[in-house]
Amino acid sequence: MKDLFSLLRKHFAAIEHIKLSLIEIHEFNCQDLFRFMDQGRQGYLTLSVLRSCLEKLQILPNPTALFLLFRRCDVRREGRLDQEALQDMMTPINSIYENYLNMKRPQFPLSAKAVSLPDEVRTLLKRLFEESLRQETKIEKVRRKIQLHDHLDCAHLFSLFNTDTN
Fold it and tell me: Rounded CA gap, 49 and 126, in Å?
């Protein structure tokens, strides 16, 4: 179990690094990303729309991992992601970035028929989603292990998080 937690910490760190790299790109903003993904202009993303967007980025997601990632982002349990949910996923954990992505202006006007993403943004998004999908698979393994151990001591579980594994 400790090895799984150690691996999860590495995934979290990798994801945060990618998010920080994304926000440093002047052309990156969540409004354009959402409009790139929401090609049907529905105002939300479904699981199938997210899958097709990932395929545009040359990511062929494992259906289970994709479902787990979607479920994590769909905090309202509506079966869809709005722009706010996508922005939450893209924002680094550090609170100083909480509104940073919101302040960045879209590069494309609302009337634009198509939104394109710079290659650097596409590359980072691909890395972010691939890492997020791997992370969700690992989190599910931890969740299942915890369910199997009714006698698991939570104090011990939290001590695994606090142990420095570097």
Answer: 16
AA identity, residue 63: P
The string of pLDDT tens digits covering residues 4-28 is 677 778 888 888 899 989 888 888 8
Q: How many CB atoms lie within 10 A of CB 3?
A: 9
For residue 54, the enclosing domain spans 2-162
Q: Long-range contacts made by residues 41-48, C-beta under 8 angstroms, separation at least 24?
A: 43/82, 43/83, 44/78, 44/80, 44/81, 44/82, 45/80, 45/81, 45/82, 45/86, 46/79, 46/80, 47/79
CATH number at residue 127: 1.10.238.10
Strand segments (E) across the chain: none
Does the pLDDT of residue 62 top 60, yes or no?
A: yes
Supply the pTM of this predicted model.
0.75
Residue 105 and residue 154: Cα distance in Å, rounded? 44
In total, how many domains does the chain have? 1
| Percent helix, strand and coil across the chain, each to the nearest 5 | 65, 0, 35
Helix residue spans in 38-118 (DSSP H): 47-56, 63-73, 83-90, 100-103
Residue 93 predicted with pLDDT over 70? yes
Q: Which of 101, 29, 55 is nearest to 47 (CA)?
A: 55
SS3 165: coil
